[in-house]
Amino acid sequence: MSVLRPLDKLPGLNTATILLVGTEDALLQQLADSMLKEDCASELKVHLANSLPLPSSVTRPRIDLIVFVINLHSKHSLRNVEESLHHVDAAFFLGKVSFLVTGAGRESHCSIHRSTVVKLAHTYRSPLLFCDLEIEDFRATMAQRLVRMLQICAGHVPGVSALNLLSLLRSSENPSLEDL
Questions:
Q1: What is the chain's mean pLDDT, rounded?
Q2: Are 154 and 61 in contact (CB under 8 A)?
Q3: What contacts 40, CB < 8 A, 6 or more positions away?
Q4: Are 70 and 77 in contact (CB under 8 A)?
Q5: CA distance 50 to 57
Q6: Can you name the residues that pair with 130 across neighbouring β-strands?
Q7: To which H or E segment does residue 30 belong?
Q8: Which of 22, 39, 77, 136 could form a disulfide linkage to 69, CB 3.0–4.6 angstroms apart?
Q9: Sheet holding 15-21: strands in order across?
Q10: Which H or E element spans position 15?
Q11: Does pTM top 0.70 for this prediction?
Q12: Cα dist. 22→39, 87, 103 in Å?
C-alpha cells in the first residue's frame, strides 16, 4: 500500500501544488479552473484524483495541500474520502489537509448529515470548509481561499506556516464538537 507523504519529493522552486480528491469530476475540474484563474505569485499546479492511493507509475511534484471534497448528496463521496484517508501519512495532517463540503445549500436533499463531516474533520484535526461549488461566485471565492491556503502550505508566505494556518482555522471553527 503506497502512502502519500508530504516530504517524499523535493519542493519545486516557487511552485505550489494542490491535490483535489473527490468523486465529483465536473465540480473538481471547475474548481481547478477557477483556481488557475487566480492571480498567484507562485506557479500553481492543480492535480485531480478520484481517490487515493495515487498510481505509482505517475510522476508528480511534491504535494503541498490535499483537499478532500465531500458532496453531502452522495454517500459514495463520503466513503471514498474515508477510504482515501488511509493512504495519507500522518504528517500531512499538520496543516496540509483540508475537507471541503459541497451541497449544504439544499440540506433537505442531503444523504449525509453535516455532523458526520464535522466529526470527520475533528477526528483528523483538519479544517472543514463549506461551499456550494455549483454556484460560480461561491466557487470563485473558494478558489481564492484555497490558493491562499496553498501558498501558505507551500511556504511562500513569509512568517506564516501550515501549522499557523491550521491554528487560525481551528480557532474559527463552528460548531464545536461538544455542541453536536
A1: 87
A2: no
A3: 16, 147, 151
A4: yes
A5: 16
A6: 101
A7: helix 25-37
A8: 22
A9: 43-49, 15-21, 65-71, 97-102, 128-130
A10: strand 15-21
A11: yes
A12: 25, 14, 13
Closest Cα partner for 49 from 86, 80, 75, 71? Answer: 80
The secondary structure element, H or E, covering residue 67 is strand 65-71
- The amino acid that residue 59 corresponds to is T
The C-alpha cell that represents 156 in the structure block: 511562500
User: 96 φ, ψ to 5°?
Assistant: -115, 15
In this structure, are residues 99 and 117 in contact, taking their beta carbons and an 8 Å threshold?
A: yes
Q: 77 is written with which cell numbers?
A: 463521496
- What is the model's pLDDT at position 176? 46
Cα R_g (the chain), whole angstroms: 15
All cell numbers assigned to 43: 506557479
Work out the pLDDT band at 10, boundaries 50, 70, 90: low
User: Hey, is 4 helix, strand or coil?
Assistant: strand
